[in-house]
Amino acid sequence: LTIATDAVDIAMLSATGTASATTFLRGDNAWSTPAGGTLVNVVQTQDYTGAINVDGVTSYATAGSDFLVSITPTSTSSTILIMAGSGSGGIDGDTSYAGQLKIYRQIASGGYASITAEPVANINGASGKRRPWTFMYLDSPSTTSQVDYQLYMRASNNAVVHFAVDGFSRFITALEIGA
Question: Which of 23, 29, 59, 124 could be disulfide-bonded to 98 (CB atoms 3.0-4.6 Å)?
């Protein structure tokens, strides 16, 4: 016996639950809503102009609006995946010099505070060498207020660190993932 294409519709199935645009038919013949991990919201800031450099700044300082993204979570149980990177970064100075990035968060204009104990990215290597860099970090802000994520950067010793070289893409992206 062969069943013709499109011969069985949803009403003919003996599945339990309710079929809808937000459910799927599981292998045990039950309609179900996907559990967690749903991508809810995506916001990105991207730019190609103007270099972002740090010249011997040894305490963390803002990387500017090119590395700032704002997102408003839909649920307090959502997590936010932060991704950032640049098409080119590097060091001018000795090979022992380095640049570091941290993520700072501000909830509802309450002031920025670091959410990472350690740097999320390091840029180091031989002077004049340029290479792309990226990182990801998962945050749980537990709020439905606007959350601003800002990259802060610093350099060791007297290094000149290039976090973004003029003409290369740089971005920061926030993805809300539902619980």
Answer: 124
Q: Which tens digit of pLDDT belongs to each residue from 14-29?
A: 888 888 888 888 889 8
Q: Taking the model in full, what pTM does it have?
A: 0.77
**CA 55-58-63 angle, 5° bins:** 65
3-state secondary structure 43-81: EEEEECCCCEEEECCCCCEECCHHHEEEECCCCCCCEEE
Q: What are the Cα distances from residue 59, in Å, to 27, 54, 66, 100, 101? A: 55, 10, 19, 10, 11
When the pLDDT of each residue in the chain is averaged and rounded to a whole number, the result is 86
CB neighbour list of residue 28: distance below 8 Å, 6 or more residues apart:
none
> CA 103, CA 94: separation in Å to the nearest integer?
26
